[in-house]
């Protein structure tokens, strides 16, 4: 049997700093807790200070360290300001989670230009800017690092009723794999964490009763995922030890949804 020290060597993040953009949300908030539990100092990034405080208090109660920085993920100036603030306060960045996102269930012919542009701006531009600003820092630092972009099953296979969201997540997957190829020589790993169906604030209005029935019929596990069930995958992708040779991966956590046919 391997000792706890062995597991700490593989998955421990002591001395690391993790920036979680979208950390005020349910899924990325759980990921932030997991990163802090593994020893990382976590910077929770979002626009809702009240939600951030609740998460930070929970992390602190468990013996972890976290702090909040307000930033708009779609503004390069604010993302650059975020990096500058983290370097000033924490001295470094080792792990970046790009998880800000929004959804909509508007029928295709009713999607307005404003809605289309808003979803692409948040879901694609936000990831683009997070990768550009923090990726440049990590590449130029020359010590490696991990970028985890939040994808979606709709980025793997198109899902009905979420047309713009599906298109935006497809772009996130494609961008992530491109950057993984470009930055591998610099030991900067870029991966996509792909949740299946996890009830969260952004998708509750999409989960109508008939939709839930369809999802359960296509999910071998016969249930939704819980936010805490993303933590193990997060730590694998974040760790330079356990995940040292993992880049360009679309790591699916979906209760078997993608494996289901008939």
Automatic annotation (TrEMBL):
Isomerase as UniProt keyword: no
Name of this protein: Short-chain dehydrogenase/reductase SDR
Keyword field: Oxidoreductase
GO molecular function: oxidoreductase activity, acting on the CH-OH group of donors, NAD or NADP as acceptor
Pfam family, one: adh_short_C2
Homology family: Belongs to the short-chain dehydrogenases/reductases (SDR) family.
Coiled coil: none
UniProt KW Nucleus keyword: no
Ketoreductase domain mapped to chain residues: 16-186
């Amino acid at each position: 049997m391997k000792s706890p020290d062995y597991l700490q060597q593989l998955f421990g993040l002591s001395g690391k700093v993790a920036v979680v953009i979208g950390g005020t949300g349910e899924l990325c908030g759980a990921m932030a807790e997991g990163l802090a539990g593994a020893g990382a100092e976590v910077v929770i990034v979002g626009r809702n200070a009240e939600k951030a405080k609740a998460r930070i208090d929970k992390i602190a109660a468990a013996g972890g360290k976290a702090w909040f920085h307000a930033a708009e993920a779609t503004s390069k100036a604010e993302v650059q300001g975020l990096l500058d603030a983290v370097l000033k306060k924490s001295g470094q960045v080792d792990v970046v989670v790009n998880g800000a996102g929004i959804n909509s269930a508007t029928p295709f012919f009713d999607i307005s230009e404003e809605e289309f542009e808003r979803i692409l701006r948040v879901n694609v531009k936000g990831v683009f800017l997070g990768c550009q600003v923090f990726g440049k820092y990590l590449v130029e630092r020359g010590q490696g690092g991990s970028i985890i972009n939040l994808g979606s099953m709709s980025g793997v296979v198109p899902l009905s009723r979420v047309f713009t969201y599906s298109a935006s997540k497809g772009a996130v997957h494609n961008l992530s794999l491109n950057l993984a190829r470009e930055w591998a020589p610099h030991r900067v790993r870029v991966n996509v964490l792909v949740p299946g169906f996890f009830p969260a604030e952004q998708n509750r209005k999409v989960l109508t009763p008939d939709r839930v029935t369809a999802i359960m019929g296509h999910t071998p596990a016969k249930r939704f995922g819980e936010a805490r069930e993303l933590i193990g995958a997060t730590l694998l992708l974040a760790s330079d030890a356990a995940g040292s040779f993992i880049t360009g991966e679309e790591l699916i956590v979906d209760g078997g949804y993608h494996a289901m046919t008939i």
